Amino acid sequence: QSVLTQPPSVSGAPGQTVTISCTGSSSNIGAGSDVHWYQQLPETAPKNLIYGNSNRPSGVPDRFSGSKSGTSASLAITGLQAEDEADYYCQSYDSSLGVVFGGGTKLTVL
Amino acid sequence: QVQLVQSGAEVKKPGSSVKVSCKTSGGTFSTYAISWVRQAPGQGLEWMGGILPVFVTPKYAQKFQGRVTITADESTSTSYMEVTSLRSEDTAVYYCARGHDFWSALDNWGQGTQVTVSS
Fold first, then answer.
1. Is the pLDDT of residue A107 over 90?
2. Less packed terminus of chain A by CB within 10 Å, N or C?
3. Cβ partners under 8 Å of residue B69, min gap 6
4. Å from A36 to nearest chain B CA?
5. Is A104 near chain B, with CB under 8 Å?
6. Closest to B105 (Cα-Cα) out of A37, A26, A77
C-alpha cells in the first residue's frame, strides 16, 4: 500500500490526452511538499519528467505537464504518442516517512 | 554531465549481506543527496533511505531501519548501500539516484543493480 495513490492503469489513443492522478495527505502533498513525476520505460531506470509540481527538465517535451492542488497532483500528457507507453510514478516528501512514491500507473497507448 | 555508475549484479544466499556501490562523476558529490530506491520484480519504486554526504548522517525509511546501512566516501565520490539478513523478498533492482536534497526531484539515476537472493 503506497503512501501516494495512483490509478494502476490508464489508456488512450494516439493524439488523445490522458491524465494521471496522485493523491496524498496532509503530511506530504497537503503539507506543501513538492510533487515530482518519473517515466520508466521497460528495463530502464526511471527518468525525471516533472519537478517541483509543474516544471519540465530540459529535453522533456511540452506535451507533458504537471499540476498540484490541495492533497493531490496530476500529470497530463497531450498528443499521446506510441513512445509514451511506460510506467509513471509520482513522488513527494512526507514529514514522517521521508521520500514517498506512488504505486505507479501503467500507460497503454491503444 | 553527471553520471551515477553502480556496481554489478549480485547473487546471494538467504541470511547473507550485499553491498552495492554508486560512483558519481561529472558533478559535485558532497552537497547533493543520494537516495537508494529499490524495485522488486513487477512492482513499484520503494525509497530505502539516503545520505547527504556533507552532513554524514543518513536517513532511512522505517521499514529498512536496522537492516540497511548507507554510507558515503567523499574521497571517491561513492555512496554504498548494504543490506544484511537477506531474504527472498529482497530480490530486486536497486537504484541510486541524486537530488539537491531529500525533498527535491531525483534528476540523475544509476543504471540499477540486480540483486537476487536464492538458496
1. yes
2. N
3. B58, B80, B81, B82, B84
4. 6
5. yes
6. A37
CA distance A1 to B13: 28
The residue of chain B with its CA nearest to that of A104 is B44
The whole-angstrom separation of Cα B114 and Cα B92 is: 6
Task: Say whether A84 sits in a helix, a strand or coil.
Answer: helix
> From the list A45, A48, A97, which residue is nearest B95 (CB)?
A45
Place of cell 558533478: B27
**Closest residue in chain B to residue A55, using alpha carbons only:** B105
Please compute Rg for chain A using Cα positions.
13
Confidence of residue A103 (pLDDT cuts 50, 70, 90): very high
Is B51 strand, coil or helix? strand
Search chain A and give the residue with CA nearest B41: A43
Q: How many CB atoms lie within 10 A of CB A45?
A: 21
Interface residue A57 vs chain B (CB under 8 A): yes
Judge whether residue B53 has pLDDT over 90.
no
To the nearest 10°, report the CA torsion of A64, A68, A73, A78. -20
Chain B CB contacts of A39 below 8 Å: none
Sorted by sequence, the CB contacts under 8 Å of residue A41 that are 6+ apart come out as A47, A86
Confidence (pLDDT) at A1: 83
